[in-house]
Amino acid sequence: MEIAPAQMWANWSGSQRSNPHIFHPYSVEMLQGLVRVYPKLRVVGASHSFSALAKTNDILICLDQLKGMCGYDREQCRSTFWAGTRLHDVGEKLATIDQALVNQGDIDKQSLAGAIGTGTHGTGITLPCLSALVSEFELMLADGSLIQCSSTENPEIFTAGRVAFGSLGIMTRIQLKNRPMYRLREQIRLCSLNELYAHIDQWKHQHRHVEFWAFNHSDNVILKILDETEEDTQARPDGWMDEDFILKMCCELTRLWPGLNPWLQRLLNVFIRPSTAVDWSSRIFPSVRNTRFNEMEYQLPVKQGLACFEEIMEVLRRQNAPVFFPIEFRYVRGDDIWLSPFYQRDSVSISVHQFYKQDYQVVFNLVEPIFLKYGGRPHWGKLHSLHARQLCELYPKWEEFQQLRKALDPEGKWLNPYLERLFIPS
User: Fold this and answer.
1) Which residues does 251 contact at the CB level (< 8 Å), separation at least 6?
2) Residue 397 — pLDDT band, cuts 50, 70, 90?
């Protein structure tokens, strides 16, 4: 098979770049041919991961051509999709058969396999990450063969492989456990930190979804609550200025003139108006996210979440950290997936973002030791500094996963330098 010329590849934020030979297989058979010919490959979906999971100068396989729904079961409310399908397309296809995802995050640009393989999630103390909603998947192994994985067929690979970020093989088809379509009522408002601390433990059980965004120089947070409803559709109100534009403008201003940061953050009451909207879940969950950033996210035990958040806020204020982006706080139900950051524990998810034109290391170096102090586990698709010897302490099934990985991929076909750092002790 003739090798394609090397091309420049970059992820969404631009923080990861390489010069791989990129292929776009349009069939499983073509994908098998690539896997059987080349000794080193990585797979990429929407390039939305901030970490170097897809970074390679060898072969990079893009799954964009393997997309769409390939089957469904009305009685069990399940559907099967090709792995390269984008999440926004999943929602649209499910609507045609009166199904919907049980939960999702506020970005829907990712590929289905990429979101599942990294443990991508939304918020909701009773709702797990997207990976835990997978009932079956087809996996292409290092020799090009295909196997089916579920709780009854290859169950060990199923339990490990739902969050494996392409280290066991290539997901080709994925079956999801869904539910009938439903509407959500979205309420967004400003909330003081004092009110938040007094009520958040109650709110997380009272509402289907609750999350907030906090600015380190403001005493208010942006609170977002979603609840299931039978109400008629109600469009989001038009703001006096586009929120994404405001965010980008403030990031540019504070990058050039850091002294403006505290002042602009305290103007939240001017920028943010209380709003209510009602729509189908697949339309309510996503938000516009055009302002590029880099992100670090850790998952903490629920009981440690607020303490970790308060310490991060205090350190960022004290150090006058050069960041305008808010800190995001969410809840996620635990699961049984070996390398899921939510393995065997309900969690608080805390995300720290930095504008893509600014050095993220300055801020991330301040907050990562705090995450680790409270027992945090990193999101696999986002930035962190951990390596194999540290990671093995965070995951009870770490050694079992490594044994399975070596058995399925003895030659290391799926490993790039980044995965070698994660998996192989130095």
Assistant:
1) 291, 324, 325, 355, 357, 358
2) very high
Dihedral over alpha carbons 104, 287, 16, 259 (to 10 degrees) = -130
Q: How far apart are CA 124 and CA 329, in angstroms?
A: 11
What's the one-letter identity of residue 40?
K
Place of tokens 């390489």: 18
The pLDDT of residue 64 is above 60 = yes
Per-residue pLDDT reduced to its tens digit, 102-148: 999 999 999 999 999 999 999 999 999 999 999 999 999 999 999 99
How many residues can be counted in the chain? 426
* CATH class of the domain at 183-378: alpha beta
What is the model's pLDDT at position 239? 64
Asked if residue 50 lies in contact with residue 13, where contact means CB atoms within 8 angstroms, the answer is yes
The phi-psi region of residue 124 (left if phi > 0; otherwise alpha if psi is between -120 and 50; otherwise beta) is: left
How many Å separate Cα 1 from the centre of its chain? 35
Every domain of the chain and the residues it spans: 9-62, 69-180, 183-378
Distance between first and last Cα of the chain: 35
- C-alpha distances (whole Å) from 226 to each of 103, 197, 211, 236 are 11, 19, 9, 13
Q: What is the pTM of this model?
A: 0.96
**Cβ neighbour number for residue 146 with a 10 Å cutoff:** 15
Task: Establish how many alpha carbons lie within 13 A of residue 309's alpha carbon, considering only the half-sphere containing its beta carbon.
Answer: 29
Is residue 103 within 8 A of residue 122, CB to CB? The reply is: yes
* Three-state secondary structure call for residue 351: strand
Angle, nearest 10°, between helix axes 305-318 and 360-373?
Answer: 140
CB 341 within 8 A of CB 380: yes
CATH number at 69-180: 3.30.465.10
